[in-house]
């Protein structure tokens, strides 16, 4: 039997193993989505529904870790970083061309 460290309920980085698990499940759905060229219909079911479920699971796992592994101030830094990164992604989405070669 393992120590249980990193799992929900432990005292060592509680919940971080769940983040890895849920990211893996989301990756599995995205892999299926890519394999069928973006179609939602897949042999395993509706991939749009599965994306909603697994994205929710990833958010929940991250929220749990933010709550239980970090201080309030660190949590604020995570949120600030999240919105800064989101702004960068939106900028890239608006202008998807990479910079020209120097
Ligand atoms: Mg899941």
Describe the protein's architecture and organization.
There is one protein chain. This protein is mainly alpha-helical and 102 residues long. The protein has three helices and two strands; from the N terminus they run H-E-E-H-H. The protein has one domain (16-94). The chain has a two-stranded antiparallel ribbon. Strand 1 (41-42) and strand 2 form a beta hairpin. Helix 1 (16-35) runs antiparallel to helix 2 (47-69). It binds magnesium ion. Residues 22, 25, 54, 57 line the site of magnesium ion.
Brief sketch in words of this structure:
The protein is mainly alpha-helical and 102 residues long. It has helices at 16-35, 47-69, 72-94, and strands at 41-42, 45-46. The chain has one domain (16-94).
